[in-house]
UniProtKB/TrEMBL annotation:
This is Uncharacterized protein LOC104727269 isoform X1. Belongs to the glycosyl hydrolase 43 family. The keyword Membrane applies. It comes from the Eukaryota. The keyword Transmembrane helix applies. Keywords: Glycosidase, Hydrolase, Membrane, Transmembrane, Transmembrane helix. PANTHER family: ARABINANASE_LEVANSUCRASE_INVERTASE, GLYCOSYL HYDROLASE 43 FAMILY MEMBER. The chain crosses the membrane at residues 29-50.
Length: 483
């Protein structure tokens, strides 16, 4: 290396200046050597991170003979492909055409431009001429075991009316799924909304009287039998949490091996959404009846959209939107699942996330959340963490297919739960609600395949030493079926 003491472009001596004694050169060369070694080990460390990730992928492949890892150049993601997953990750597009401009009076036309109304506004307008695209009618767009489906039996039709075994629309909104291992039966719990929708004021929250928590049972996740109301409303006592004038949302049920009880957690509120609490109920049977125990503000904080997650080791956690929906709180439950412990972590601080849905794959925790925009659909985000208590990192919008508006509105739906796809490692069912604020009992279900595979699509918030999270992808399909 040539060192110039003085030149016309650099008047000051350089930092590698050699003095007459020669010590300066030795010091500078030593510094260069040190930084070179540090840089070498840094590169080796980064390569090892990618190598471990690649090895993990190949280990997964070897554990399932039919799995293959392929590269999709359109999205630059790695996806797990076998005869089932190949169809699930097929990218399907949708074209929704805007209606012609509404007729306006001459006076109005002079004051306002004729800009097209955004598609989300059309979705929220119960008088929109394209409303049938979001909420197809019962006569032409219902599916289920009582319908003559022909070759389309067992297919899901996101957004269409899903019928139970008695031929009635399923009422299990904002709910979750419990797989009862004793009977090998799935139980779907959700808000039973079968009454008129009320609005506090023109732009206020829509609600219905509490009817209760509905329960449906199934062996195949498609044919659902109505097991009735497993937790009913209180008709007369106005001070009771479950009085019909109050709010019950997002019920989730887990089973306690310790007490052999089925434990239900739910969001409990008053008509003005100021109570902001969780409620707890228990039962000896998955089909109830459930006995309501109490409500509280967990850890002393307000709680609205919430869920519970039972980990592989049997520890269960409460996850809820708090501090006026600006922060998510996560904390373990007691051993009997009937209360929270004092331990709690604040995550996604200031990000205003709600509707949390947590699941786990290969020792990594994943979560899908929505932004807080009332009944208007918005862009979902996927998150990942090594520990359920955090820190959680953003993976970006998981939605693929449909069209740009579909992806920016989570297919006009909001997350509620994620369950493993039976027999397909790395594949899940993403459960979401397509809310109908004009008539909440007519809200629809959007179930879609969710696949974990490929690197994160956004820069990580943490640097060296953190794993490269696999990407979460939710694929739009106008119809699809389980393997």
């Amino acid at each position: 290396m040539r060192i110039m003491k003085n030149n016309k472009y650099n008047k000051k001596p350089t930092s590698l200046h050699c003095n007459d004694a020669g010590g300066g050169c030795r010091y500078s060369l030593l510094t260069i050597i040190i930084w070179t070694v540090v840089g070498f080990f840094l590169v080796v460390h980064l390569v090892s991170l990618y190598s471990r990730k690649d090895n993990n992928i190949h280990d997964d492949v070897s554990s399932s003979d039919q799995l293959q890892v392929v590269h999709q150049h359109q999205h630059q993601h790695l996806h797990l492909h076998h005869p089932v997953v190949h169809q699930l990750v097929r990218v399907e597009e949708e074209i929704l055409r805007m209606p012609p401009p509404r007729k306006r009076s001459p006076r109005t036309s002079k004051r306002r431009s004729r800009k097209p109304i955004p598609l989300v506004e059309e979705f929220l307008d119960d008088k929109s001429p394209i409303r049938h695209l979001f909420f197809p009618g019962l006569k032409t767009a219902a599916f289920g075991p009582t319908k003559d489906m022909g070759n389309e039996t067992s297919y899901y039709f996101p957004g269409k009316i899903w019928m139970d075994t008695e031929g009635n629309p399923i009422q299990a909104h904002g709910g979750g799924i419990l797989l009862d291992e004793k009977s090998n039966t799935y139980y779907w719990y959700g808000e039973y909304k079968d009454g008129p929708t009320y609005h506090a004021h023109k732009r206020g929250p829509a609600r219905v009287d509490i009817i209760g928590v509905g329960c449906y049972s199934s062996k195949d996740l498609w044919t659902w039998k109505n097991e009735g109301i497993v937790l009913g409303a209180e008709e007369t006592n106005k001070t009771h949490d479950l009085h019909k004038s109050n709010v019950l949302e997002r019920p989730k049920v887990i089973y306690s091996e310790k007490t052999q009880k089925y434990v239900m957690w739910m969001h409990i509120d008053d008509a003005n959404y100021t109570k902001a609490s969780v409620g707890v109920a228990i039962s000896d049977n998955p089909t109830g009846p459930f006995e309501y125990l109490y409500s509280k503000r967990p850890h002393g904080f307000d709680s609205r959209d919430m869920t519970v997650f039972k980990d592989d080791d049997g520890v269960a956690y409460l996850i809820y939107s708090s501090e006026v929906n600006s922060v998510l709180h996560i904390g373990p439950l007691t051993e009997d699942y009937l209360d929270v412990t004092p331990v709690m972590k604040r995550v996604m601080v200031g990000q205003h996330r709600e509707a949390p849905s947590i699941f786990k794959h290969q020792k990594v925790y994943y979560m899908v959340t929505s932004w807080c925009t009332g009944w208007a659909p918005n862009e979902a985000l996927a998150h990942a963490a090594e520990s359920i208590m955090g820190p959680w990192e953003k993976l970006g919008n998981p939605c693929i297919g449909g069209n740009k508006v579909f992806r920016l509105t989570t297919f006009f739906a909001q997350s509620t739960y994620v369950i493993p796809l039976p027999g397909v490692p790395g594949a899940f069912i993403f459960m979401a609600d397509r809310w109908n604020p004009a008539d909440l009992r007519d809200s629809r279900y959007v179930w879609l395949p969710l696949v974990i595979g490929g690197p994160a699509d956004q820069p990580l918030e943490y640097n060296f030493g953190f794993p490269m999270w696999s990407r979460v992808s939710i694929y739009w399909h106008s119809k699809w079926r389980l393997p």
